[in-house]
Amino acid sequence: TREYCVVIDISIKPLLLVKNAVIVLFLKVFYLTVFPETRRLFVGTVAGNICEFSLSEDYNKMTPALTYSDHQGTRMTVVLFVLEVEWLLSTGQDKSLTWHCSESGQLLGTYNTTACVSGLQFDVETRHAFVGDQSGQVTILKLEQDRCSLVTTFKGHTGNITALCWDPIHRMLFSGSSDQSIIMWDIGGRTGTAIELQGHKDKVQGLCYASATHHLISCSSDGRMVIWDMNVTREETPEWLDSDSCQKCEKPFFWNFKQMWDRRRIGLRQHHCRKCGEAVCAKCSSNSSPIPLMGFEFPVRVCNTCHESIPEKDRVSTSTFHNSEHNIVYMHYESTIGILLTSGTDKVIKVWMIPRFS
C-alpha cells in the first residue's frame, strides 16, 4: 500500500476538483501541515517521527530540513506548527503531547494525557494549548519553555473529540465530537458559558471559524456541511431535572413504586423537555420543534407548554446546510481568499469558493 503527500496551490483557480493527484511519495503519512508564509511542510509518519521539508517557490521541489523523533513506535495524531514562537507541537497514540523548538530541533517538554489525543489548538498570546482526546474531554494546558501546567478540563461530549477550532480574536473554542454535536466554549467571557450546536447526523469531522463575519463552518462524515451564524444571540441548553413524577401532570414514573401503589396507577416512562429541562411524561411532551437559538436545528422533544410559547420566528433556522457529496475527513478554510478545502474518503479534494456569507 502506497501513501502520498499532495501539495496543491489553490490560488491558481477559484474552483478545483483534484483526484488522484501525486507530487511526491513518502512513507506512510498520518498527519500533514504546511505553513505557506515560510513554505515549511511538516509530515507526521506511522513511525512516530515528524519530517520537516522546505518547499520551493513553485511547490515543485521539496528539500529535507529536520527530523523530529517525537513518538517512537506510535503513529502521529496531530502536528501543529506555531510560527510566532517557533514551536512544533505534536501528539501521538502514545498519549503524550510534546513541543520542540523548530529552530534548533530541541525537545522542550512533554505532557502525558489520560487518553489518545485527537485534537489540538494553541493560543499564541497566552501560550495555552487546547487538547481534545478520545475520552471526550478538552484539557487546557499552560505551556512554558521547558514545562507546562494544567489549567482546567472541559467535559461536555459523550463521544470522543474529533475536531477543535480556536478563535483568538473572540477567544472562543469550538469542539466537535463523534456524538454528532458541537460545543462552543466561551473562554474569553470567563462565565463558563457552553453553547451546544446540533446540526449533524454523523460524527463531526472538521471545524473552521471565520472571525471577520462570525460564522462557524462544520462538516461531518455523511458529507453535510453547515454554516452557523454566530452573530445571533444563542442560549445554553438547560440541565435535565430529576423527578420521580411528571413535573406537569404529577403522574408517577415507573420506578416510583410508592406513588404508583398509593394512586393505583401504572408508572410512566420519563422524558425531558429540551427547552426547559423538566422531567415530563410522553403525554405532556407529545410535540417536537426545532429550537435554532438553542442549537437544535432538527425537531426535538419539548413539553406542551414550551411548544406553545415558542414563536414561529424562533423556529426558523439560523444556519445553512450544504451537501459536499463526499465523505469528508478533513477541511480547511482560508479566510483571506474565501476558499474552503475539503478532502474525503473517495480520494477527492474539493476546493469551494465562499467569498461572503449571507
TrEMBL record:
<dbReference type="InterPro" id="IPR019775">
    <property type="entry name" value="WD40_repeat_CS"/>
</dbReference>
<keyword id="KW-0677">Repeat</keyword>
<dbReference type="Pfam" id="PF00400">
    <property type="entry name" value="WD40"/>
</dbReference>
<dbReference type="InterPro" id="IPR011011">
    <property type="entry name" value="Znf_FYVE_PHD"/>
</dbReference>
<feature type="domain" description="FYVE-type">
    <location>
        <begin position="240"/>
        <end position="311"/>
    </location>
</feature>
<feature type="repeat" description="WD">
    <location>
        <begin position="197"/>
        <end position="238"/>
    </location>
</feature>
<dbReference type="InterPro" id="IPR015943">
    <property type="entry name" value="WD40/YVTN_repeat-like_dom_sf"/>
</dbReference>
<dbReference type="Pfam" id="PF01363">
    <property type="entry name" value="FYVE"/>
</dbReference>
<dbReference type="InterPro" id="IPR036322">
    <property type="entry name" value="WD40_repeat_dom_sf"/>
</dbReference>
<dbReference type="InterPro" id="IPR020472">
    <property type="entry name" value="WD40_PAC1"/>
</dbReference>
<keyword id="KW-0967">Endosome</keyword>
<dbReference type="InterPro" id="IPR042234">
    <property type="entry name" value="WDFY1/WDFY2"/>
</dbReference>
<dbReference type="InterPro" id="IPR000306">
    <property type="entry name" value="Znf_FYVE"/>
</dbReference>
<dbReference type="InterPro" id="IPR013083">
    <property type="entry name" value="Znf_RING/FYVE/PHD"/>
</dbReference>
<keyword id="KW-0862">Zinc</keyword>
<dbReference type="InterPro" id="IPR001680">
    <property type="entry name" value="WD40_rpt"/>
</dbReference>
<keyword id="KW-0479">Metal-binding</keyword>
<keyword id="KW-0863">Zinc-finger</keyword>
<dbReference type="GO" id="GO:0005769">
    <property type="term" value="C:early endosome"/>
</dbReference>
<protein>
    <submittedName>
        <fullName>WD repeat and FYVE domain containing 2</fullName>
    </submittedName>
</protein>
<dbReference type="GO" id="GO:0045600">
    <property type="term" value="P:positive regulation of fat cell differentiation"/>
</dbReference>
<dbReference type="InterPro" id="IPR017455">
    <property type="entry name" value="Znf_FYVE-rel"/>
</dbReference>
<feature type="repeat" description="WD">
    <location>
        <begin position="154"/>
        <end position="187"/>
    </location>
</feature>
<keyword id="KW-0853">WD repeat</keyword>
<dbReference type="GO" id="GO:0008270">
    <property type="term" value="F:zinc ion binding"/>
</dbReference>
